[in-house]
Amino acid sequence: MSRRARAIAFALAAAACAALAARSVSGYSAGVEAQLGSLETAVVARSALQAKRPIGSADLHDLEVRRVPSRFLPSGVLHAPSEALGRAPAATIPAGAYVLSAQLVAPGARRRTTGEASTLGPGRAPVEIAVTGAAPLAAARGGRVDVIVTAEPQGDSGEGRTYVAVTGVRLLDLRAADPGAGDGVSSSLPDSSVATLALTRAQALRLIQAQNFAREVRLVTSAQGR
User: Fold this and answer.
1) Which residues, including other chains, have CB under 8 Å from residue 208's CB and lie 6 or more apart?
2) pTM of full prediction above 0.90
3) C-alpha distances in angstroms, 2 versus 7, 9, 52?
């Protein structure tokens, strides 16, 4: 075989290998997406965000956008740093944590809810969380509910731990989630809603922490409300 023929043969072989590699990578990516869901943007705290300190334009460098498989995203995660502008963390958000809408309050929210404190109960404030399968509870506004969290599976079991995060809290409002609203609370999960609950500070922090590792959050009618 001439030198030129060998060169052509090697070039064709290299092209075939490249095509096979590209096909293999494409198939692997499709398999991963089928298992974990498509990649979505999520806002993560690059450094700790201090409690009660409103987030201004100069603070946006403290927020980082990452692309994460939808299966691992907690309910209510922000998708763009601009969604946090003008809002303040109710409690310090540690570096590396997802930033959730339920963690942030608008300026003046405390003043607006002061008049509601007597009806909500001492030390309680309205907090929005994204939930799944809660539509049947729409008529239960004003009643008490338990919040059930199913965490992402650990290890090879394939099943996440399900537990009661808070019990006997008042359901103030329930509305259908709007994925296109851009409010950071609405969930892209099917049959999702946004529930407003009357929570103590400890309960709110517990739910915020739970949502970081939750596959889904559900509401059930509480025995305390019967």
Assistant:
1) 91, 100, 102, 103
2) no
3) 9, 11, 77
